[in-house]
Amino acid sequence: MLGVVLVAARIALHRAWTQKRGHYRRHLGVEMSGSLRVAGRKQPVDIAPRTLLAEFLWSGALFTAAHGVFLWLLLAMVLRAPPDLPGLRAGVLAMATLQLLGFAYDVPSLAQRPFAWVKGLAERSLGRVVLVHLAILGGALLSFGRPHPERFFLVFGVLKLAADLASWLSLELPQPDPERPPRFAGWLAALAPRREESFADYWRRSAGRARTEALADEEPGDRVD
Fold it and tell me: Who's near 219: CB < 8 A, 6+ residues apart?
C-alpha cells in the first residue's frame, strides 16, 4: 500500500510539473461501467477513471486492500499463524525506509523525466500487485490441508525471484520491429481464419498508432479526447 501511495505521488508531481498530455488519458486498461436511467430506460455509462493517476490509484489501492483482507483471513483464521509483532515492525520499518529513499531519489529528477518513464513505473507497480495476487492464490493452494505458513510464503519467494530474473532478461532481448511482425506470431496468425486485413498490416497499423500516441503523450497540453 505504501508503494502504491508513493508511486501515485510521483505521478501527481510529474503531472503538476510537466503537464504532459499522456496524464489525461487511460493507459492501464481499467474498465468500470454503470447505468443511467434516461426517459425510463437504462443507458450504460462508462465510469472508469480517465487519467493515469486515478486509474492507478483505483486499481492499486483496491487490489492491495483486498489482498490485506484475504491475508488476514487466511493467516489468522485458517492457518492460525498471526504475525510476530516485533518482526512485523522491523519488516515494515525496513520496507518503508527503502521505499522512501527511492522516492527521495526520484523526486529531484521528476520534472526532466519523460511521460513514458512514469507510465512504465505505474505498469511495473501494478505488475507487482498482480504478482502478490498470484502468490496469495498459489500459497493458499500449497498450504491447503497442511497449515504451514512457510509453504505459503515460499510461493511468493519463487514468483518474486522468477519475476526479477525475467525483468533482467528482458533488458537483453531485442525490441520488436514495428515494420515487421515476429515470425512466430505471423505463423500463428496464418493458422487463423483469413480476414480482410493481414496480420502484417495489422501489426504495422498498431505500431504506427502506438508511436503516434506515445509522441502525443509527451507533448504539454490538456487532456486528449
Answer: 20, 21
Of 154, 127, 161, 158, the closest CA to residue 140 belongs to: 154
pLDDT for 159-210, tens place per residue? 777 777 776 665 444 556 667 777 767 677 777 776 777 777 777 888 888 8
Residues listed for the chain: 225
Residue 144: its pLDDT value, please? Answer: 65
Helices (runs of H) and strands (runs of E) counted in the chain: 7, 2
Q: What would the grid cell of residue 43 be?
A: 443507458
Distance between CA atoms of residues 148 and 129, nearest Å: 24
For the chain, domain boundaries:
2-31+46-163, 174-225
Amino acid at 101: L
Q: Which of 29, 36, 187 is nearest to 123 (CA)?
A: 29
Please give the Cα distance from 109 to 161 (Å, whole number). 29
